[in-house]
Amino acid sequence: MKATLALENGVWHDGESAGATGETGGEVVFNTSMTGYQEVLTDPSYAGQIVTMTAPEIGNYGVAPDDQESRAPQVSGFIVRDESPIASNWRADGTLREYLVRNNIVAISDIDTRALTRLLRSAGVMRGVIAAGDHDPRELVEKARALAPMEGSDLVLDVTCDAAFDWTPAPGAAEEFTPAPQRRAQRPLRV
Q1: 36, 53, 69, 85 - which has most CB atoms within 10 Å?
Q2: How far is Cα 90 from Cα 138, in angstroms, rounded to an integer?
Q3: What's the fold here for domain 2-148?
Q4: What does the pLDDT look like over 68-82, one tens digit per residue?
Q5: Cβ(75)–Cβ(46) under 8 Å?
């Protein structure tokens, strides 16, 4: 399905929907991590923001319940260059797309994320809208301009839990898996 990213400066990009259907808005920012996209999605510091990942392919190791930074995704939207259709990870319980759809996160792929990042670096963060489906991009630009700015927003109540609780890491195979390193003398010599 087609999707469009529209920015308040009048620029828009067409791509493919990579998550839930619908429309979302927020402050468009970028993240240069090559891994950790699930942690980014669930990091409360990204509340109200549409996060652009600059790494060329996102989603190749799927999503795993133990990798969440909070109980649910916090981002308003997600932008990637290429979305991996498979999850190659023994811990994964699904693909990135399945996770985004299940959590109602609107996302877009097939975007030149490096060009978008250069724009954001030179012009500063700006408000934007992602819409899945056929939409007039000029109307989406106007919707982006109409969004409330992040400056002065108090998002703490949106991302804070209702009551304090103790956190302990879940026991899992990740902690139990410790491969024994080979000693230099045991490794085959290749010339």
Answers
A1: 53
A2: 44
A3: Glucose Oxidase; domain 1 (3.50.30)
A4: 888 899 999 999 999
A5: yes
